[in-house]
Amino acid sequence: MLYFLYKMSSSDLTSHNSEEDLSDYDEALDEVNKRIYEAFDILKRETRKARKEKRSLDKVAKKLEHVHFSTMVQLNVGGHLFSTSVATLSRDPGSMLHAMFSGRFDTKPSEDGSYFIDRDGTHFRYILNYLRSGQLVLPEDKIVRKELLNEAEFYQVQGIIDELKGKPFKDTLILSSDQRQTLINWLKDTMTNASNDYVLLYRASRNGWNASNFHACCDNKGPTVTVVKNGNFIFGGYTDQQWESHASGVYREASASFLFSLVNHSGLPPTKMALKDGREGYAIYCHGGHGPTFGGGADLRFPHAPNSNTCYVNLNNTYECPVGQNATTFFTGAQTFTIQEMEVFGFEKCICKHKGVEKMWRKMSSPKGPEEASDLPCDGAFEEVNKYIKGVYDILKQEANKVHKEREAFEEVAKKLEHVHFSKMLKLNVGGHLFSTSLSTMNKDPGSMLHAMFSGRFDTKPDEDGTYFIDRDGTHFRYILNYLRTGELVVPDDKTIRHELLIEAKFYQVEGIIKVLTPKLFQDSVILSFDQRQTLSNWCKDATDITNARDKLLYRASRDGWAASNFHSFCDNKGPTVTVIKSGNYTFGGYSEEQWDGSSGYKRAQNSFLFSLVNPSGLSPTKMSLRAGQEGHSIWCNGAFGPVFGGGGGCDLVISNGSNSKNNAVNLNNAYQCPSGQNENTFLTGNQNFLVTELEMSSFRKSQYLEDSLSDGSFEELYKHIDDVYDILKRETNKLRKEKEAFDEVAKKLDHVYFSKMLKLNVGGHMFTTSLETMTKDPGNATLIKMPSPRELEEVSELPSDEAFEEVNKYIIGVYDILKQEANKVYKEREAFDDVANKLEHVHFSKMLKLNVGGHLYSTSLSTMNKDPGSMLHAMFSGRFDTKPDEDGSYFIDRDGTHFRYILNYLRTGELIVPNDEIIRRELLAEVKFYQVEGMINELEPTPSADPIQTVIQPFKDSLILSSNQRQTLMNWLKNTPGVSKSDELLLYRASRDGWYSYNFHSCCDNKGPTVTVIESGDNIFGGFTEQSWESSGSYKSAENSFLFSLVNPSGLSPTKMPLKSGQEGYAMYCHTGYGPTFGGENYHDLCIFNTPNCNNNFAYLNNAYQCPSGQNAETFLTRSETFRLSEMEVYRL
């Protein structure tokens, strides 16, 4: 405005004085102009400041909506305390939190003013933050996200559920959103939970077009969806079976498989093509040299490198072709074609589904209560209204639907609000970790110590602060609480965490967690997959009673030796056993309840069986029982052979001496039944004679449970006494029976004898008078003893017969059995109470100690501190020193408390569980030396002669080939090698576990940095190191620090390191997809490992790139011959 006035003034003045001398005015006008500009600038600047301030105030005003001084709500979520506002909790009208504070439910705070919710509060802050800001920010951690989804489903916060639930096919570059939804609709029966997902396993343009690339990414990954793009056409297939690699190819049965077309040559809408009846066994074809192939015929086949080689379609062999469509051209307009892209998605199942949540809530906007829902208008009334006022109808129906939804929501909330325990909250202090829960949660497992603790049978009282103190490590206690709350165990797949949690679950006797975490049968197997272990366990349980049994790995050929003598030294006289054999890709074996020995003869074992888990025919896991009458030939024991099953006309399965290099044989149908339609010689491995690549033998042993409150000896004594009573009764009754017979005789003779108090006798006409006393002077005179009355005689006549005695005997035995059964119950109950009583020693209500270790707070007990009499902790509380607590009641120790929980746990349990991490172990060792806990020092401190780093990390600890001395030799060679870090070696690949094909090696080892290859061939052990990554490039790589080595050789030379020859660094290693690890080159490879090296001849030809030891033959130094086969191979990343 001032600027406008200035312009006007300036113009007027100029017009009036146009002919005058304006020189006097120019300076004045310039000054005025300058001042006006300055005023304008000041106003403009101040206006901007005001605007900014207004914007800031507006922003603050919005943010201050979150600052509710009079409506603050305090929440106690499983012991985690949160402060928020009613407005925040009401942000999602469809959530349980909104309903909880809507006024429709009688929710009252606890005594401390907080509202208690019996749920895990670890991730509740993410829920609150989402309600506050509308944004979900959380770590990229699968466990955190799954746990949070579980909580969001409980609280029914739909926005979080939508963000966290599975988004199938989200990473696709082929599918549109509509096409994704079509696939999801077809697959909805496979996705039973919000977080179920189909995730990208393989993209040809990213992972490589070779069949080996497909199999490396997709084999053994469960159900998959294959999506293919050819020009504008999009099609593919789903299978519920997993893909596998087989050299000769096998069909797999997959009854839920189907093909589909989303965009096709005919312009047909998206089409699903199901399996034809009876063709389920040909659903997919698994071959190591092919990509995904569907149907026998094949209906849809993708060869090696389908971007350049011809793909093929021929529907109606196994999958139905749409009616009216051409079986060969429906997909792309041609029978043969190449493709521009392929994607394979694998099914990922959620492990933390919340049982109580079966449907998601919609947002509730109606203010009406649930009680009004019963008065909703019926559809007929709506139709009537619709005739007159369509708009009213729409409004009414919309509002009625809202009320319906609100009623459903309230019913759901009512169930969930059972977790909101306002008056029954319990506060627990578990080793310094504070938790809040409810009595009902503690009582979920009636057999647990937690239930017993609050059952009223024990005098459990809270501490002064109202908490119940348990002297245990509380680090993982939240998993126990969550299990009791939901019935599901969600825990990271971390061995240390699971081990620690199992120890705690055993202490608290939470049987459900113990069952989940306790190692199952065949856990030590390097051959069996999880599913195969379960299958074999079920078969063994059917064959014999192994309930509560544990298995023990007796023998592994690659570890303990391949000779028959090794097998017998480990396995003879060890009771029921299971033999598991791997030959290439095939897995089979046998069970026998009879024990092995070296006796050279057959043994009878009627429950024995053979089995096949993976076979060339693609038959599902198969159990082969003994044939009728062949029980006496179940196994054959001979010290010169390994395990041999069957006999009669010939042995069904023979494992020879040195089974990795000599021929073993199979010839089913002698003693064991061959599956119908299968060849008895080739069913197991494809050949009658075969090599074993791994063999394991496990035995079963019963868990020991005390069953009786009285010992067996006591019961035998009791039974003996019962027998004695029975004998006495029988003897006395026999005496009574004889007496009765005598009475009967006398009764006949005494028909004429009449008694009174005085006895008068007429003896043949001679009269005598006497007394009863006189007549009974001689007890042996049967005629003169006191005669029974007729009533007494009548009772005697009812004496028990022999049958009655047998009946009595049955009852006595029955009573004995009942007594024994009841005694067992009493003993078990007493044992359980003793166990609980022992464990409740850890619940120290008055002897709790609070420790502040460098700012880390711990709670424990005096008895725990005194467990190690020689430690500083024992001395500290022995009374010999003047140790006093701080003002807050805690004892302060000026040390790092980061790892102090491991020390407390060791003192509590006597067991040291600590991660295999060099830094943690070094830091912990320093602390235990300070506290002088001798047992921990002994476990953690390296031996004086060893390098501390190597002792702690246990080099090559997972090796089945190397001895401890050989491991140390390798580490000594490697420790000064440039580029090699002193950290734990990681086993990337084991041939007997991961497969013998070269693509198995490359899929596990390519692009992994420096590696060590360790090879076993018979008794010889050798290999090589390279600091460069393996690849599938088909070229040599330079690696100047590479070397070959021999640890055991035919010449008996001590362990030998063979470095590169000068100038040969460029030929250090040869990378090719068709080869395994291959070292050296130019003229010949120094060490060449071929595809399937357990069957094919590999070779060594030293002195090309690597130095051969002086005086040794370059071809035979490693194995005695130029060509050789492998019995095992391992590759480690450094």
Summarize the structure.
With about 1150 residues, the chain is α+β, with helices and mostly antiparallel strands. It is about 35% helix and about 20% strand.
Task: Describe the 3D structure.
By secondary structure, the protein is of the alpha+beta class. Among the domains are: 72-164, Potassium Channel Kv1.1, Chain A (2-Layer Sandwich), CATH 3.30.710; 177-347, no CATH class; 425-517, Potassium Channel Kv1.1, Chain A (2-Layer Sandwich), CATH 3.30.710.10; 530-701, no CATH class; 848-940, Potassium Channel Kv1.1, Chain A (2-Layer Sandwich); 964-1133, no CATH class. Helices cover 33% and strands 19% of the residues. The strands form 11 sheets. It has a 6-stranded antiparallel sheet with strand order 4-15-5-6-8-9, sandwiched between helices. A 6-stranded antiparallel sheet has the order 7-10-11-12-13-14, with no helix packed on it. A 6-stranded antiparallel sheet has the order 19-30-20-21-23-24, sandwiched between helices. β1 and β2 form a beta hairpin. α11 (379-388) runs antiparallel to α12 (390-416). It is globular and about 185 Å long. The N terminus is likely disordered.
Question: Which helices and strands appear, and what pairs or packs with what?
Answer:
Layout: H1 2-16, H2 23-63, E1 72-77, E2 80-85, H3 86-89, H4 96-100, E3 114-117, H5 124-133, H6 142-155, H7 158-164, H8 177-187, E4 197-203, H9 204-207, H10 211-218, E5 224-230, E6 233-239, E7 250-252, E8 258-263, E9 271-274, E10 284-286, E11 293-294, E12 300-301, E13 311-313, E14 336-337, E15 341-348, H11 379-388, H12 390-416, E16 425-430, E17 433-438, H13 439-442, H14 449-453, E18 467-470, H15 477-486, H16 495-508, H17 511-517, H18 530-543, E19 549-556, H19 557-560, H20 564-571, E20 577-583, E21 586-592, E22 601-603, E23 609-614, E24 622-625, E25 635-637, E26 644-645, E27 653-654, E28 664-666, E29 689-690, E30 694-702, H21 712-749, E31 759-763, E32 766-770, H22 772-775, H23 790-796, H24 802-839, E33 848-853, E34 856-861, H25 862-865, H26 872-876, E35 890-893, H27 900-909, H28 918-931, H29 934-940, H30 948-953, H31 964-974, E36 986-990, H32 991-994, H33 998-1005, E37 1011-1017, E38 1020-1026, E39 1035-1037, E40 1043-1048, E41 1056-1059, E42 1069-1071, E43 1078-1079, E44 1087-1088, E45 1098-1100, E46 1123-1124, E47 1128-1133
Parallel strand pairs: 1-3, 16-18, 33-35
Antiparallel strand pairs: 1-2, 4-15, 5-6, 5-15, 6-8, 7-10, 8-9, 10-11, 11-12, 12-13, 13-14, 16-17, 19-30, 20-21, 20-30, 21-23, 22-25, 23-24, 25-26, 26-27, 27-28, 28-29, 31-32, 33-34, 36-47, 37-38, 37-47, 38-40, 39-42, 40-41, 42-43, 44-45, 45-46
Protein name: TLDc domain-containing protein
Domain TLDc: 173-348, 526-701, 960-1134
Coiled coil: 15-63
